[in-house]
Write a structure and sequence with these properties.
This protein has about 600 residues and is α+β, with helices and mostly antiparallel strands. It is built from 15 helices and 19 strands. It has 3 domains: about 325 residues, no CATH class; about 55 residues; about 190 residues, Histidine kinase-like ATPase, C-terminal domain (Heat Shock Protein 90, 2-Layer Sandwich). The chain has a 5-stranded antiparallel beta sheet. Strands 9-8-12-11-10 form a 5-stranded antiparallel beta sheet. The chain has a 5-stranded mixed beta sheet with strand order 14-16-17-19-18.
């Protein structure tokens, strides 16, 4: 328990750190962040809000202008004098021709003078090979301008069209002649300079700029100091598709972009200005920024030193103690004179060392006793079926008076039972264990040589001296005979082979039996892996448990479907550490 001194509120480590953090650091950080974020956010929102209002209003006004021009364009298209020129020009005398032309010119001039955005109005009359212009009056049919007009109409539904620096409304056509060409076409050319002047009114700062975009993201008009560079950077970023307000990096400088869209016109209008302009309202807080920086640095130094002295150094002492514990140093307690929380932890750490030594000694002895008990249990499980079959084979050999085979068989049988019943040692070399397993298969081969084929590979030399618990291979082979191969009507096949990897050795036993499916293998593997559950400690479970106790996690039995068709059992022996191999027996 804590002493009375440790219960004093002001002396606890947690309270001291908490008070220091709130009194010294937190108010300064929160104040600085609040002032900066509020100022920046407010300036950013105000600029964006004002820009959105301006851009939306501009598009509405432009749409009204375009609608008025389209109405006038349609009215011209319906003019009776214009149809008269197109259809009856050859039948008209010179007076009528002059009168009709003058009337049309007067109408074009009147309409042009009603809008500052109209640069010229063209009427292309192919039947009389004439182009009438509000500016240039009557002239020879302008084939280039007419062809450009027809090209813009193909697959283009935009109301405002830009072609080679020529900005005009979508042309209107009247009727079709015998050759499939329109009788005449009315085309309104817009004054790009006047439109640029109107766009320029949206620029709030000298460094800002504005540009018009079509629905397919083409620049139609652009004004501003950087009008040739910045729009291209904007079009090359995916941010243009996201919000109406965003920031774009242009050659290392951030620019603030606002855009508005007119569905009627199919146009975007975008305005931009440097991010520094957005931040300009924050200049009045520059002194506060410096105060905040200096204060923060001093605070961080004080807090860092205090944290190092009160927390870091005591923790390092505790970490060093745990590192000594990991390396086996359980006889070096932490010496200290602290009375705070770390003093309490150090006292408990020292008591834990003593308790841990006791538990390790107790646990080690229990594991040894458990391994010996499980081995004796496995030894006691001599399969009566195998014993009866062995005597039956011996009886058959005696009846045939095959004394040589009787001698060989009895010698193998004696070696077999001597190995499984001896109590002198719990671990043997893998060479001895494989020799015993091979002897078992040779005994079984006397009975099943015609029905079961066995492939027993030679043990790799680097695996021979590995120390393993006794009886880990033969019971697996016995299980294959008893539960699979003996029951087969076709020829059985048993294979025992090995794999050597960098950090593990594997003994693989597999057969071609047909008595197990994937579901049974999964359930059996799950049953084997639950080594901490209280269950019957026999057969494969016994072997797996002893392997895990001996070599640790990652070792033991691993079951899967064999490529031969039956069960595949891998007995895996993992190395104990990066520089520590499994135990071996010295032959010297």
């Amino acid at each position: 328990m804590f002493s009375k001194r440790n219960h004093i509120f002001g002396k606890t480590l947690f309270v001291r750190l908490l008070v220091m953090y709130h009194v010294v650091i937190l108010p300064i950080i929160l104040l600085g962040l609040y002032l900066y974020n509020w100022s920046y956010s407010n300036a950013n929102q105000e600029i964006s809000r004002y820009a959105q209002v301006q851009l939306t209003s501009y598009l509405e006004n432009l749409n009204r202008e375009i609608e008025w021009m389209e109405i006038q364009q349609f009215d011209i298209l319906q003019e009776r004098e214009l149809r008269k020129i197109a259809l009856t020009w050859d039948m008209m005398d010179s007076t009528e021709k002059k009168s009709s032309i003058n009337y049309v010119l007067h109408r074009l001039t009147s309409i042009r003078n009603t809008s500052a955005y109209i640069k010229d109005i063209y009427i292309h009359i192919r039947s009389v090979d004439v182009t009438i212009s509000a500016v240039n009056a009557v002239q020879t049919f302008d084939q280039l301008l007419y062809d450009a007009t027809e090209m813009t109409l193909e697959g283009n539904k935009d109301r405002l069209i830009e072609k080679g620096g020529f900005l005009h409304l979508r042309p209107s056509m009247m009727g079709i002649d015998q050759e499939g060409e329109p009788l005449y076409t009315v085309q309104v050319e817009l004054d790009a300079e006047k439109l640029k002047e109107s766009l320029d009114t949206l620029n709030m700062y000298p460094e800002s700029g504005t540009f018009l975009l079509s629905e397919d993201w083409r620049v139609m008009l652009s004004v501003g100091e950087e009008s040739n560079r910045i729009p291209n950077h904007y079009l090359n970023t995916d941010k243009k598709l996201i919000d109406s307000t965003n920031r774009v990096d242009v050659d290392g400088s951030l620019y603030h972009f606002d855009k508005a869209y007119s569905e009627e016109l199919g146009l975007f209008v975008v305005t931009y200005l440097p991010e520094e302009i957005v931040k300009s309202p924050l200049n009045k807080f520059s002194n506060w920024v410096w105060v905040f920086i200096v204060t923060s640095i001093v605070t961080i130094m004080i807090y860092s030193y205090s944290t190092y002295k009160l927390v870091h150094r005591p923790l390092l002492l505790l970490v060093d103690g745990f590192k000594r514990m990991e390396s086996g140093g359980l006889d070096k307690p932490i010496k200290h004179e602290k009375t705070d929380e770390f003093g309490f932890i150090y006292d408990r750490y020292n008591k834990m060392l003593v308790k841990l030594k006791q538990l390790i000694d107790q646990d080690y002895k229990q594991k040894l006793m458990m391994q010996k008990a499980e081995l004796k249990q496995l030894q006691s499980q001599i399969n009566p079926h195998f014993l009866y079959n062995s005597f039956f084979i011996l009886n058959s050999l005696a009846k045939t008076e095959d004394t040589e085979r009787i001698e060989v068989f009895t010698k193998m049988l004696g070696e077999y039972f001597r190995f499984i019943t001896r109590n002198g040692e719990n671990e043997v070399s893998l060479e001895e264990e494989i020799k015993h397993a091979r002897m078992y298969t040779e005994i079984q081969n006397l009975r099943f040589s015609r029905r079961i084929k066995v492939q027993f590979d030679e043990l790799p030399e680097q695996m021979e001296r590995v120390k393993v618990p006794r009886l880990i291979v033969q019971p697996i082979i016995e299980n294959a005979y008893e539960h699979s191969l003996e029951k087969m009507s076709d020829e059985g096949y048993l294979r025992i082979h090995y794999e050597v990897l960098n950090d593990e050795f594997s003994i693989i036993v597999e057969d071609n039996g047909d008595t197990v499916n994937d579901d049974k293998i999964y359930k059996l593997a799950k049953h084997i892996m639950n080594i901490d559950e209280h269950q019957e400690q026999t057969g494969m479970i016994n072997i797996h448990r002893r392997m895990v106790l001996t070599y640790g996690t990652g070792s033991g039995l691993f079951l899967s479907k064999s490529e031969l068709g039956g069960l595949k059992v891998v007995i895996r022996i993992k190395q104990k550490g990066e520089n520590e191999d499994v135990q071996t027996i010295d032959r010297g």
